[in-house]
Design goal:
alpha+beta; Ubiquitin-like (UB roll); five-stranded mixed β-sheet; 3 helices; 5 strands; globular
Length: 89
């Protein structure tokens, strides 16, 4: 199963400890995560199901290309890291 972890600033707002979840695409992995933590979905995805502008998702240290359909492939050995950018001044 793929391992997914989240930046510390997300962890301050939601219980998002690193997890191992099944899935062969980013979308499938996120669906498994959202099943156990539905509030997380609105932090990461917009109402169309696309990755929000201030969120970056990396699979094996490479930023995903498909922010709309989340079809980037994931292997059972993949490490996924979700980053929420901080803004402001």
């Amino acid at each position: 199963m793929a391992r997914i972890s989240f930046t510390e600033n997300l962890q301050r707002h939601l219980d998002v400890a690193p997890l191992e979840v099944p899935g062969d695409t980013v979308g499938a992995v996120l669906a498994a995560v959202f099943a156990g933590n539905p509030r997380l979905r609105s932090y990461l995805l917009d109402d169309q199901g696309r990755v929000r502008r201030h969120v970056a998702i990396f699979v094996d240290a490479e930023q995903i290309a498909d922010r709309r359909h989340l079809s980037d492939p994931v292997s059972a050995a993949s490490d996924i890291f979700v980053v929420q950018a901080l803004t402001g001044g």
